[in-house]
Amino acid sequence: MGRKLDSLLGRNFKASKFKSLVKLAISRIGILENQHQVRYSHARSDVIELLNLGHQDRALLRVEHVIKEHNMVDAFTIMESYCHLLECPEELKEATSSLMFASSRCGEFPELLHIRGVLSSTFGKEFVARAVELRNNCNVNPKIIQKLSTRQPSLDSKLKVLKEIADEMGITLLIMEAMIVEEKWDVNEKRDESTVSKSTKLDDPEHKNETKLDENLSDSIKARKRYKDVAAAAQEAFESAAAARAAVELSRTEP
Question: Rounded to whole angstroms, how far apart are CA atoms 251 and 238?
Fold first, then answer.
């Protein structure tokens, strides 16, 4: 590794110190990866418990932490492979660029920041800025960009992970069915509003009956709103009953 890096990074580059730093970074990755793996397992267990209790809405919120911790575990796995790839000059560009980008997202990783400083003094600040700011031809691995993204997981991705966990535990995910029904209601309401609007223009150009039509539309929407409230109340009752059953079963299993 020493001769390769000396020839690649210049005579003033201290390969022995850099090699020691890379080893420390790999050791740190192992610790951080284990920490995030534990957090992932705990968050996943929380989701399973909430699903068993029938609290599917709370499970959907908690699954965001499952996604984030899983992404961090994957990101550290990629970083570890790149630290090892520093021994291979032909892979150095993508490895260093990706590690520079990761250094701006992992404040808990001091060795990586040190590596960034060493490479910045060798390649220049422009090289680091190109990777950190994801400029054109930055050579950062797209997968590590995705895994270290600061964006909140989309509702679709959260529902997907929640469904995977629910399916694995044999739990029916009612929250998805409720969202599909609500989406259909919204579509029907918009269709009704469009129909009423067209009828007003065709039958009464001067809109003499506009007030009456608005009242009819309001009644229709109110009726659907009451129906939604009833459905929501039924769902809440179902969840309460499920929680009660879970509590009774838990008390029976206690010695």
Answer: 20
Instruction: Give the residue among 110, 108, 150, 106 at the shortest CA–CA distance from 25.
Output: 110
Long-range contacts of 143-152 (CB under 8 A, 24+ apart): 143/74, 143/78, 144/75, 144/78, 144/79, 144/98, 144/101, 144/102, 145/101, 146/71, 147/71, 147/72, 147/74, 147/75, 147/78, 148/71, 148/75, 148/101, 148/102, 148/105, 148/106, 149/71, 150/105, 152/64
What tokens were used for 56? Answer: 């599917």
Integer Cα distance of 175 and 55 in angstroms: 9
Report the candidate in 145, 117, 90 with the shortest Cα–Cα distance to residue 25.
Answer: 117
* Structure confidence at residue 49 as a pLDDT band (50, 70, 90): very high
Would you state the structure tokens that stand for residue 3, as one six-digit string? 């001769």
CB-count exposure of residue 210 (10 Å: 0-12, 13-18, 19+): exposed
On whether the pTM is more than 0.85, the answer is no
Whole-angstrom Cα distance, residue 52 to residue 143?
33
Instruction: Output DSSP code: residue 152.
Output: P
> What's the rounded Cα separation, in Å, for the pair 175 and 5?
55
Cβ atoms of 108 and 81 within 8 Å: the answer is no
pLDDT in tens, 167-207: 999 988 888 766 665 665 665 566 656 655 555 555 554 44
